[in-house]
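Provenance

Sequences were taken from public entries as deposited. Structures were produced by running a predictor on each sequence independently, with no templates supplied. The record for Hydrophobin from Lactarius akahatsu is shown for reference.
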Amino acid sequence: MVPYKPIVSLIVAFAAASSATASATPLHRRGNGGYSPPYAPPVPRAQCSVAHSKCCKEYTSSQNPSMVALAQSLGVVLNSVVGVATGCSALGSTCNNQAVCCTNTQYGVINVGCSPISL
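Predicted structure for Hydrophobin:
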């Protein structure tokens, strides 16, 4: 039974490595496709104008491939790494998605230059 010891050790090592990898994998991607928006400190709600305050279904990075494709389809070039948001509506008293302040341009369905709002 000595010849099987290396195989058992290999199986145990593989199982341990697999469980460590699985535990490091995020379970929930929060609607950003796995592309977190660039870090920006939350903007106090009072410092964001009503016109720029949005409640958005998706808040992600301009490097998100689905966001790049959407921007390109609208003729928008995302040159820098910024926060972008889609599925936005005016921010009311509550927001069940992501409250953001988008200070740059809105191109139809995509808002560019967004930062989170602290409510």
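Residues 43-118 form one domain.
The mean pLDDT is 75.
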